[in-house]
Amino acid sequence: MMPTFSRNTKKNSFPTMLLVVVSVIVLVVLVVMNRFTTAQANMPDIGYAEARYPNIVGTKLDSCMLCHTSSVPSLNSYGQAYKSAGRNSSALASIENQDTDNDGFTNLQEIVALTFPGDPGDHPVLPSPTPTRVPPTATSLPPTPTSKPTQPPQPTATNTSVPPTPTSGATQPPHPTSTATVPPTPANTPTEPPQPTTTVTPIPPTPTPPPQTASSLTFSPEADAYTSSDQHSANFGTLAELKSAGKPIQRSYLRFDVSGIGGNSINKAILRIYVDSSNAGAGFFVRSIANNTWVETTITYDNAPAYGKILAMSGPIRKSGWISVDVTRLIKGDGLISMVLNTPGNSYETLASRESGSNSPQLVITLRQQNERQRGDDTGQEEQEDDD
Fold first, then answer.
1. Which end of the chain has a smaller Cβ tally under 10 Å, C or N?
2. Which pLDDT score is estimated for 160?
3. What is the rounded distance in angstroms from the CA atom of residue 69 to the CA atom of residue 78?
4. What span, in angstroms and rounded, lies between the C-alpha atoms of 312 and 361?
5. Where are the domains of the chain?
6. pLDDT, tens digit, for every residue of 232-274?
7. With respect to CATH, is domain 212-370 assigned 3.90.1690?
C-alpha cells in the first residue's frame, strides 16, 4: 500500500526548511564579520608601525607578517613581545633594543635594514672584512758544493836485473869476461796531470722581502653639516655640533679630502667621532655618497645629496666620548670621500663637528708599504756582488 501524506504534513515541513536556510545564512554572516573584525583589529597595529617606521611603507614589512607567522592567527616572537608590551605605539618603542628572534641584531636594526625582527633566518648582512694581502716569503737557498774530481790510480814501475850470459865449450884462457852491467831501468814516474782548480762560486741568498711596516694617515673633514626634517630649508653647517636622529629625521654629512695613499694598499680605515650626548639607542649607520659637490654652508634637508646603502654601523652608544667605526669599505684611494650618518627609530646622537676644535672628527687610514731603506740596502748589496 502506498503511503499517503496529508496536506498538514507538507505545511509543517516548509517552516523547518526555511529555518535551516536562515541558520546557514546567519552562520556565514557571522564568519565574515569575525574575519572583518579581526582585520580591523589589526589595522591599528600596521598604522602604528608605519607611523613609527616610515621606511617600511610599501615593503615586505608593511604587512601582517611583521608580527605573525605564515599562519596569520599565530604570532611570531616579535609579535608576542609587541603584544606583551601593550600593543600600541609605545610598545613598539619599548622593544626596539630587544633581539626577539635571537639572530644577533636588535629589532630596530632589523626594521631599518627591512628584515623581519621575528624571523631568525632573515637578518641584515654585515660588511665583509677586507682581506689583508700577505706577501710571499722567499726562502734563501744554501750554496751548492762542487764535488772534487777523483785522481786516477798511479802506475808502479818494476826494475828487472839482467843475469850474466854463461860461457859454454872449452876452457879458454882466462880472459877477463866483460859483463855488461845493465843499469837499472829508471823508475817510470808518471807525471800527474794538472789538477783542475775548482772554484766554488757562492750563490748569494735570495733577498727576503723586507718586513711590512704599517703607516697611517689622519684627515680632518674639509666640510661637515647636518640637516633636519623639521627645518627642511635651514642650514647648520657653521655650528660646532652634528646631529643624527630618527624623529625629527636628522642626518650628518662629512667630506674628507684623502691623499697620500698612492699605490699602497689600504689595511684599514677608521672614522673617529666624538659623541657629546646620546639616548643610548641603536647608534647610527654610515652610508656612502657619490655626489661630492654639496656645500657646507648651503646644504639643507631639501637639497641634500642622495645616499647609498649601509656600509658600517656604530652599534649602541651608551656614553659620551670618542667612538670608532670601521669604514674601510668606503675608501678606495685618493680623492674626495663623502659619507652620511643617519639614526633609525627613536634614537638620537649629538656629535662634535670640525668647528668644535680638538674634538673634530677624524678619518684614520692605515696603509701597508715596504721599508724603503731596507729595500735600498739590499739592492746595493746585490749590485756589489754582481761587480765581484
1. N
2. 47
3. 10
4. 16
5. 9-112, 212-370
6. 999 999 999 999 999 899 999 999 999 999 999 999 999 999 9
7. no
Integer Cα distance of 104 and 125 in angstroms = 11
Q: Is 62 helix (H, G, I), strand (E, B) or coil?
A: coil
Of 321, 364, 312, 278, nearest to 124 by C-alpha is: 312
The DSSP result for 85-96, as a single string, is TTSSHHHHHHTT
Q: What are phi and psi of 155, to 5 degrees?
A: -75, 145
**Type of residue found at 43:** M
The one-letter amino acid at 252: S
Which amino acid, 209?
P
Q: How far apart are CA 187 and CA 183, in angstroms?
A: 12
The answer to whether 145 and 125 have CB atoms below 8 angstroms apart is no
Of the two residues 8 and 86, the one the predictor is more confident about is 86
Q: What is the pLDDT of residues 36-71, one digit of tens each?
A: 555 445 557 888 888 888 888 888 888 888 898 876
Question: Coil, helix or strand for 330?
Answer: helix
Q: Are the CB atoms for 310 and 282 separated by under 8 Å?
A: no
Residue with cell 666640510: 223
